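A favour, since you know our structure tokens better than I do. It will help me judge whether the discrete encoding reads sensibly. The space below this message is yours for that.
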Amino acid sequence: MDITPQEVAETLSMVSEQNLDLRTITMGISLAGCADEDMGRMCDKVYDRITHTAERLVETAEDLEAEFGIPIANKRVSVTPIAQIAAGCADEDLSPLAHAMDRAAESLGIDFMGGFSALVQKGMGATDRKLIASVPEALATTERVCSSLNIASTRAGINMDAVLLSAETILECARRTEDIDCYGAAKFVVFANMVEDSPFMAGAVHGSGEADAVINVGVSGPGVMAAALAELPESASLMDVAEKIKKTAFKITRAGELMSREASRRLGVEKGIVDLSLAPTPAAGDSVAKILEIIGVGECGGPGTTCALALLNDAVKKGGVMASSSVGGLSGAFIPVSEDAGMIRAAVDGALSLEKLEAMTCVCSVGLDMIAVPGDTSVETIAGIIADEMAIGVINTKTTAVRLIPAIGRKEGDMLEFGGLFGSAPVMPVNRFAGSVFAHRGGRFPAPLNSLKN
């Protein structure tokens, strides 16, 4: 489908008036061939592979911004999960690989790099355990590196040993970065049904089924969507609302498709996917919560919120798939508390609770994202929150995730300040009745019956 000049003009209006941007252009890079018994040599190979493959990424993105007038908020790289290339090395500490990734990110001028990761949904090998043990040091001593674990899938069930390890890792990441508002925990996420082609951090990895290098683009556009819905009268039916969302999502996604095609062509690498997620920012008006309130919810988190979010998410997907033949990643509506001004307000007002957020994740793209909890929250409580969210993903055959930030030394009602796209995180109350047994049982939550698809 050709992209017309009229579409470009309409998109420029969205940029100037409604905060439209491409949230990220992310180059996925395979590190196959970088494995080595010697840690120093492996780090050199990783650095060289990344910097050589992505050497023109930032330059190309800036050229596209200038030519098409569409801002690209972040330039990023994702790599093969590090645990998959480090198995031949006997070193216990894998954080030097994170340092090599961080140096490469700095050399390239990119914002974030994902892939200090492991896939442990069914079991953990020795290298997986070494990587998990290295995560707190890696994230505390790097600026741009992000880490992720896939600890559950519909096909495998939930690795409950990995759930507890993840909870312990989250707490240690927060403790190691207490002096910078526990920022280390903001760069670590755990998944059920992780995808291989997401451009969004902290969970972007370059999957084993991908080409050597690909370009994945993540669009944004909550401000555009809110402005479009604000044109509807309060008397408009939900069918009318859904139609407006679909048409607007189509327009937003076309901008991402255009930039994806051009970036891929100019860089000489495979065109990957367009992730049509509505990714909010702390900027005024650029809020998924505001969209839900325009649909008719009194305040985000109030009765009707889950239904409104389900409608939004479904209609965004329906509109987006007509705009690109390569829709992928997560694609829907994100609900990161700290990154959405409306979510922050709702949490401070008490309209939005952790339990309501969990209910909302049943119908949205990701999960419990960028949520600050009191610093004295127990590891059993965090493990229980993770397990609950993994169960939602496993049973419903969807991607879910948890990115919690234990606010060490802080209590409910305090605020963590990250700045930039990460915004501000109000410390939210948690249910403290997790008990001391469930998190320590270990073993594996069996794959559900609906995993038997063959």
